Prior knowledge:
The chain has helices spanning 2-6, 23-33, 47-55, 68-80, and strands at 11-15, 38-43, 60-63.
Amino acid sequence: MEALSSRRFDAVVTDLEMPRVDGHEVLKAARKHQPHACVVVVSTLTEQRYRDLVDAGACIVADKPFEYDEITKAVTECRARGGPGAHGKCHMRSRPEEHSLVPLRRK
Length: 107
């Protein structure tokens, strides 16, 4: 969290549920301090959680389990499109199906 406010990142990858810090807080800090960074959130997802994360500014949401190569490819695509704009709205929003790297499980 400290690094987000003091260094520049092109991409931020975070899990949603972690022992010492909540992934929502990491996402919020990334949007505040790294508005142009591509933010990837990894979690076990429901459709509502997925929508909430995209609405909160996640560029890419990866449902567990995922392949490392898929995240690398998605971040590369996000950066090629210019990442999020000045207001933290990711250019990936133009094609919402690209936010998720694997099909969402229906619960």
